[in-house]
Amino acid sequence: AIATASLMRLDTPISDSLNTALRKSHNPMKKCFARFVENGKRLMKSQDLMKDLEITIEDKRERSQVLEGFLGYILSNTQEAAVVPPNVALAVRPSPGFWEFVKVNATSLRVGDLTASEYLKFKEAIFDESWANDEHAVEIDFGAIEFSAPRLSLPSSIGNGVNFISKFISSRFSEDKQNVRALVDYLLALHHRGQSLMINKKLNTASKLQSALFAAQVYLSSLPKDTPYEEFKHKMKGWGFEKGWGSTSERVSETMLILSEILQAPDPLKLELLFSKLPTTLNVVVFSPHGYFGQEGVLGMPDTGGQIVYILDQVRALEEELLYRIEQQGLQAKPQILVVTRLIPDARGTKCNVELEPIENTKHSNILRVPFYTQNGVLRQWVSRFDVYPYLERFVKDATGKILEVMGCKPDLIIGNYTDGNLVAALMAKKLGITQGAIAHALEKSKYEDSDAKWKELDPKYHFSCQFTADMISMNAADFIITSTYQEISGSESRPGQYESHEAFTMPGLYRVVSGISVFDPKFNIAAPGADQSVYFPFTDKSKRLTNFHPEIEELLYSRENNDEHIGYLADKKKPIIFSMARLDTVKNITGLTEWFGKNRRLRSLVNLVVVAGFFDPSKSKDREEIAEIKKMHSLIEKYKLRGQIRWIAAQTDRCRNGELYRCIADTKGAFVQPALYEGFGLTVIEAMNCGLPTFATNQGGPAEIIADGVSGFHIDPNNGGESSKKIVAFFEKCKSDGGYWNRISEAGLQRIYESYTWNIYAKKALNMGSVYGFWRQINKDQKQAKMRYIELLYSLLFRKLVKNIPIPTEEPLPAPAAT
Ligand code: UDP
Ligand code: LCN
């Protein structure tokens, strides 16, 4: 039972109802299950099951009878079926976060329930029978340690962890006043550069604090509201209060009232409010080791995309909010945010070889670069995100030293980004005893089909054994996790979320995860990013348009010449443009879009295609996927004779010019198309929408949540190019017959953005998380410590060993500096 503790299950197991349903449709189902066993596929997905069902139950009426009943419900909710004749095991997901496992004997149609562990073992037999039968195969089970941890129960509450934790803490306060002591201790520990904040030792019990608050509030009510703190600080100190309550008598009074009310009768909303006012966070470290992390000339390269844009915008928003809060709290402190990445000596014209670089449009934030080391010294070249693991342990050690030196103190909060950044953040947070937040951006596991079960096949190329282990470690070590969408946590009705796919999975021969992370864990919080609205603003905002870029953009789109920056040309300048921009990764599917365009004559007659992606010479790339995609782009242009209708532009690194480019596409009454096979969030989607450009985006992942289909844009199915290109055609045809249609979609897109996707909302939420979870980890110390011991074992015994499989690149000499 412990093995499935974190997997939410329905009250009544499905096996009974399934038994009855199978008995009722015995004959057609017998044929159907016989086919599942005979078709040769050992791991079937939902669409495979449906296809077989269509083949075996030819009669449409009979088929729909079956599909309308319980069997249809089960089969359509089956994410995966593992076939080991004569049995078929089904992993059924009736709704987000809820899983059931059953085994059906294809001959007798007898049904049996399976636990997650049993299901995974059954599935493993397809790949590695002796491993599946090994009683002592490694099982990872975080649910077994966290059996007493609080869990959400409603799928609708998923992603709103702060709210849940506040409720949980206040109910603990109500149950036992002793627990309030923890809050007093927490306040006592707040300090800045050796100086106590909020309260000092005089107020070391809840009752002393309560009386002092009462006395102070009576006194404050006699002062004019805007009296500066400086004028009454001595009086406050006399009672045991320190700075941090507020800059004026009114603010101090407000904060004191909130705390008094909590001490009198705990209330989750008041608790959340109090935590948003406490000076808990002044110094923040943000880790993002891989890639070329820079402010200029790095975007669009492999591994160097949205994560960088996100972090730089995030830092600006966090700094702004921190400055605002510090001012309100009446402190003179300077907030410091350090983005810590790797220093790359072979910087290829970027500033990635500079150790400390101030972040533009901030007052106190910097990028700190720390090199990766090998046995031969500093690693000079870029390495792919799939190959970074061997350097991380040393990186944490070096980075910790540097951070303490540059900040002059310990940070209050560490935020990791992507697998490598999250692992590094977890290691450093543990070392220094600091609150840790994690941000995935993309969990690679969901991007590649069966990447867990088929890990052995993929490992030489992607090292998923390291990556998924690191992900398991850091998502469990993190005090809180920030996600961009609900989908990222628990997916949609039809598709499991990125985190959800880490609940139960197996890598045969390595380990079996029977409870990895639960989507009902209250550490999950949704805080969607925005797009920098000074760069991405509507094309209708004429006075702000960057017209100085227009001649360059005209050349970029329409000149006839082929060069290093663009190839192909647009013969008919009057047509609207469908536009896409992404790194040239397979998953971005830019080649897919090119092929849909190539195949759809009607689409080609209506619009031109412009894509910004990668570059044109495969021999100049070091990235395996990029090389393959470059070659494919060239062959598609030839195959479909696209010259005259396509413009392929190389990766663009100037954000401001890109903003204007989106707007120029809007001027042509065109559209943005994001065709990814899977997209974690999709910053280009919100950039395009911010510019007022109607957007078609993949229904696989985050964009499905950003866009309301047919209202604020459109969803397209990347796995069904024919249908997707028809949908684009339908839009442009409708625009021809209905003059206002294009504008209506454009405006609805903008409205959607303003309601939900801005950086200011994000910064407030993220800082509140740091504060609430900082306290939660204190009162949950014992549980956390037990979990960390388990995590340390995984790190030492598993991860360190796996890292050794990744080859260290041999040093390539740097090219001689160009003559000037
Ligand atoms: N981008 C860019 N130039 C390019 C390709 C992409 O500036 O040639 C930017 C794009 O504007 C967006 C980011 O890189 O800000 C890509 O983020 P997204 O979330 O769409 O995808 P990711 O690359 O993170 O997977
Ligand atoms: C990485 C991705 O793949 C995108 O989907 C996100 O938009 C980006 O990071 C920022 O979080």
Automatic annotation (TrEMBL):
Gene3D superfamilies: 1.20.120.1230, 3.10.450.330, Glycogen Phosphorylase B (3.40.50.2000)
Start and end residues of each Sucrose synthase EPBD domain: 160-246
Location of the Glycosyl transferase family domain: 569-733
Record key words, sorted: Glycosyltransferase, Transferase
Pfam families according to UniProt: Glycos_transf_1, GT-B_Sucrose_synth, SUS_EPBD, SUS_N
Domain Sucrose synthase first GT-B residue range list: 270-558
EC nos: 2.4.1.13
Sample GO molecular function, one term: sucrose synthase activity
GO biological process: sucrose metabolic process
Reaction(s) this enzyme catalyzes, per UniProt: an NDP-alpha-D-glucose + D-fructose = a ribonucleoside 5'-diphosphate + sucrose + H(+)
Superkingdom of source: Eukaryota
Keyword NAD part of the UniProt annotation: no
Domain Sucrose synthase N-terminal, chain residue ranges per copy: 13-124
Family under the similarity heading: Belongs to the glycosyltransferase 1 family. Plant sucrose synthase subfamily.
Functional summary from the UniProt entry: Sucrose-cleaving enzyme that provides UDP-glucose and fructose for various metabolic pathways.
Name of this chain's protein: Sucrose synthase
Organism whose genome encodes this protein: Cucurbita maxima
